Amino acid sequence: MLNFILYHTPFFYVIQSVWRDEAFSYFMAKPNILQVIINTAHDFNPPVYYLLLHFWMKLSGQSDEGLRLLSLIAHLICVFIAYVFAEKRMSKKFAWFVAAFTLLNPMLLYYAFEMRMYSLFALFTFAVFYFFYFKNWKWYTITSVLGLYTHSFFPLILLSFAFYLIPSHKLNRRNLWLVFKPFLFFIPWLPVLVIQFINSKNSWLFPVDLQLIFSVLGNLFTTYEGTPGNYWGFTAILSFIILIFILKGWKNKKNESLMLTIPIFLPLLIILGYSVIKRPLFVNRYMIFITVFEIMAISLGIWSIKNKIVKSASMIFWLILVIIINIFSPSYHKKADFKLTFKEINKIAVSSDYVYSKTPIGFLESAYYFQQKDKAFVYNPQGIVIPDYIGVNIVFPNISRSTLPYSPSRTFLISDNASFELLIKK
Question: How many C-beta neighbours within 10 Å does residue 297 have?
Fold first, then answer.
């Protein structure tokens, strides 16, 4: 039973090895505050998460589990906001379903155990929606500003709220000002955002095709990105089911539904459209805010069902579905086990030894786990320029080495799959 819980449920995400992006977060958050902000300006995301992680390190220590706990706390606050909203807008009994539905959502739950900003992004999405709905403009502005400084796609949420004013017949200067006011506090970062967008044209992002477009709602609900490759059909069907529940809410609760569906479909239209016409911008995790609105739109659709038996059956269906996905998914999210590799290496390494990664891909994990972090390098005998999107250049600008160190030093040469060779150059 313990083995099943640890390796076949989302608990696996807590104990598995840190992967490249998480190691990048660690090194981004480690320097002093000013350097964190400077480094972030050369990345593709704003600094709020890295600043929070900087201070969190002082509280939690530097274990994988402790560092990931920050994201879990953000996720639990998401659950709380979802519950409070549903209790106020729907009923206390139904609010427990919404809370469970949010807690167990595969997309949110996956990033609740990752040392990245996406769970925080989801939190500010929930918060902004809550304060926008209840017209608490002070906290709407505060949480919007924090969201803007958390992820570069957050402006799409505020743009969606502005568009909502049109069909809801609430478009006037005052409401536009209240929606867009947070951008005033984001002006200092706008030049950085523009430069980051220009630089992002040299990236790893994959092209968008019809398969992705037809399955995108299901992908964003389940965190499916193509592994295993034969489940595009399932996420396409799930997308259709999600759409049915969204339309159900729109039919019976039009005003609330518009507030939830415009932030789903307008950003998708912009990002998928740009990705098809110009260059790829779409990445599942960048769109995690849409998952938030999916959860609430589906919940609204269920709540609007008048037949109690059908409503209860729908609630059971969605809860069983997310539980099954959470049991099925972990084995497909397994990372290369650098933790185990370096547990072995750190036992036998001495102060004169070095770690070289064969490619930049495996460097950040190697530097994260090697006990002598100042002796971790990228083996680069051809002097190939390392792409910025890998992240190595930002925190380690002079990390390439063209030759191996001589004996008595030894070199642990690390492959991207976390295997290694021990080399001695004489």
Answer: 27
Q: Measured in whole angstroms, how far is the alpha carbon of residue 75 from the centre of its chain?
A: 11
Q: What is the pTM of this model?
A: 0.94
Beta-carbon contacts of 25 under 8 Å, excluding residues fewer than 6 positions away, are: 49, 50, 53, 115, 116, 117
Report residue 214 as tokens: 């037809």
**Alpha-carbon distance 74 to 97, whole Å?**
19
pLDDT tens digits for 363-420? 999 999 999 988 999 999 988 888 776 777 778 888 888 899 998 999 999 999 999 9
Characterize the bridge pairing of strands 420-423 and 411-414: antiparallel
